[in-house]
Write a structure and sequence with these properties.
Helix content is about 40%, strand content about 15%. The protein is globular and about 75 Å long. The N and C termini lie far apart (about 60 Å). Helix 5 packs parallel to helix 6. An 8-stranded mixed sheet has the order 3-2-1-4-5-6-7-8, with helices on both faces. A 5-stranded parallel sheet has the order 10-9-13-14-15, covered by helices on one side. It has 13 helices and 15 strands. By secondary structure, the chain is an alpha/beta fold. Strand 7, helix 7 and strand 8 form a beta-alpha-beta unit.
């Protein structure tokens, strides 16, 4: 049976490299569609939990995961030798920035080396990691076609992950999936694999176009958040409520899309992806002024929150160096446990350098690693009363807003989480 027939008959073995926020939901969706799926990950904890049918992500219910593991449809391993029996390999590894804030493709390169070491014909390899235009063409294809013919023995495609952690409306299954192949045969092979697991597929003409599509999505969000953050800073000097302005502007039925200001950008994609694009633009001697300006504004927001905290306390005769400050929420977004690039972490570090005492409370994040040391969250029902200032950096649904307003003396609400509520005894401040 050829590879196309195996995929269409759901008899292919699919290996998902990296079973984190993007890889695990994809692996589950493919397994639910009938494919035999193995998650390959170096993290011994993830492999052990998956082997027991236990989920480590809030987006994947154990009620979905357990039956797949029990049936043998989904399993996990740390051993790259599993690639020897893989018919399709989906690469969902991290693509962070390095110390100079340039693209770090080391995880992709390592994954390719593992695939190449166990490569056989025929095989489909799809890169899902966010990256700059040209990565699939210039990095993936050359490495995998040294001894195998493209489109006949090795099939290569790019299909960017579009996972939105915590989103209860859109999942892997019902989020349209952009796909491009390194050749027409490669595209068809990838379409065959994803078609049973995802409702809508969006083929594009080249892997470069698919890579740029993902970066455009990220950049659109980053630039608009940078814009509204800048408007928020202006509004405070003007004495205007920026959230009222945004709500009023959103009443226009065309030509406006509301974004909300906050303490900065977090997550793997939105803060990082645009910088992959600006790096690529610089290599082509193009300017990426919007991207770089938005990055400058957004990266400055955690420091602005610390400065705002100092101003609020100073207006009440309290120096930040003598103050006790509590941060509510260090996850990068509501109702998830993900702290990647979280502005709440940057606010926490900034306050530690200046305040007398700093602690955090996050019902989804029990412990964070800060510069080589572990810091634990306060218990969820801890009182807000002992703190000179409470800063809401993540508006988790679990936040008892009424109790916060009763117990706290001052609250810096960077997310607009307390708008429309009776004030209680707390003085509430915005960005």
């Amino acid at each position: 049976m050829n590879l196309t027939a195996k995929i269409r008959a759901k008899e292919a073995h699919v290996v998902v490299m990296g079973v984190g926020w993007a890889g695990l939901p994809l692996a589950v969706s493919l397994a639910e569609a009938g494919h035999r799926v193995t998650g390959l990950d170096p993290d011994v904890r993830k492999v052990a939990l998956l082997g027991a049918g236990e989920s480590y992500l809030s987006d994947v219910s154990p009620l979905r995961l357990g039956p797949l593991v029990d049936r043998g449809t989904l399993r996990a391993t740390q051993d790259p030798k599993v690639l020897e029996t893989a018919d399709a390999v989906l690469v969902c590894v991290p693509t962070p920035l390095n110390k100079t804030r340039d693209p770090d493709l080391s995880y992709i390169v390592e994954a390719l080396e593992q695939i190449a070491a166990h490569q056989h014909a025929p095989m489909l390899v799809v890169l899902e990691s966010t990256t700059y235009p040209g990565t699939t063409r210039d990095v993936v294809v050359p490495r995998l076609t040294k001894n195998y013919e493209l489109g006949k023995e090795i099939f290569v495609a790019f299909s960017p992950e579009r996972v939105d952690p915590g989103n209860r409306e859109y999942s892997v299954r019902n989020t349209p999936k952009v796909i491009a192949g390194a050749s027409s045969a490669c595209l068809q092979m990838a379409m065959d694999l994803y078609s049973g697991a995802i409702d809508s597929l969006v083929p594009v003409s080249s892997t470069d176009a698919a890579e740029l599509t993902k970066l455009l999505e990220n950049t659109f969000r980053a630039v608009n958040i940078g814009l509204v953050n800048e408007i928020a800073l202006m509004s405070r000097h003007l004495g205007v409520d920026v959230r009222e302005v945004i709500a009023a502007a959103a009443s226009k039925p065309f030509g406006f899309m509301p974004f909300q200001p906050g303490p900065g950008l977090g997550g793997q994609c939105v803060p990082v992806g645009p910088l992959y694009l600006s790096w690529k633009a610089r290599s082509l001697k193009c300017d990426a002024r919007f991207i770089e300006l938005a990055d400058t504004v957004n990266r400055a927001m955690p420091a602005h929150v610390v400065s705002r905290a100092s101003d609020i306390l100073g207006a009440h005769g309290k120096a930040l160096s003598d103050a006790r400050v509590l941060i509510y929420g260090v996850a990068y977004k509501r109702d998830v446990a993900d702290v990647r690039e979280s502005p709440g972490i940057d606010v926490l570090l900034g306050l530690e350098a200046r305040a007398k005492e700093v602690a955090f409370l996050d019902p989804h994040v029990p412990v964070v690693e800060l510069e080589g040391r572990a810091l634990s969250s306060l218990p969820p029902r801890s009182s807000f009363a002992p703190w000179d200032l409470v800063i809401v950096t993540t508006d988790h649904s679990a936040l008892d807003r009424e109790r916060l307003l009763r117990e706290a003396s001052r609250v810096l609400d960077t997310r607009g989480a307390l708008r429309g509520l009776a004030q209680g005894s707390a003085e509430v401040y915005d960005l």
